[in-house]
Amino acid sequence: MSDPVILERTQRFLSFLRHCQVLGMSVERADRSGLTLRLPYSDHIVSDPETRIIHGGAITTLMDTTCGISTACALPELEICPTLDLRIDYMHPAEPDHDVFGFAECYRVTPTVIFTRGVAYQRDINEPIAHVVGAFMRMGKTGVVGMKA
């Protein structure tokens, strides 16, 4: 179950990212343990019209966003934390006609960097499409314009 304060914070954060709105991403769950975002299946994210498989760039966007916004779950106040490093290992293609979920958690928070890890999946989180690890730079509340925690 989501934490109402963290859920609102992550939904607001996502609403500022225009490319995520175009892709139709939404927050499924958000609490201190992590964040789950949904990327709905649609024709405009298909890489090959014959197979109808989702383009890897859409999965990368989902996972970078999920890891980045998961920082809002771990910090007491909202901070903008740009991506320093992101690694995605693809296990297999996403199945056509099914939404993709991204889960990420912050496993280490330092004064300057937040370390995240997560998975992209469809039906079962234990059968991931991809694994991700990322590092995000802490900028403090300086970069938060119009976004109150």
From TrEMBL:
InterPro entries: HotDog_dom_sf, PAAI_dom, Thioestr_dom
Alphabetically ordered keywords of this record: Hydrolase
Superkingdom field: Bacteria
Stretches that traverse the bilayer: none
Signal sequence, start to end: none
Keyword Disulfide bond part of the UniProt annotation: no
Keyword Hydrolase part of the UniProt annotation: yes
SUPFAM superfamilies: Thioesterase/thiol ester dehydrase-isomerase
GO cellular component: cytosol
Gene Ontology molecular-function annotations: 1,4-dihydroxy-2-naphthoyl-CoA thioesterase activity
Domain Thioesterase, residue spans: 53-127
NCBIfam families for this protein: unchar_dom_1
Protein name, UniProt field: Thioesterase superfamily protein
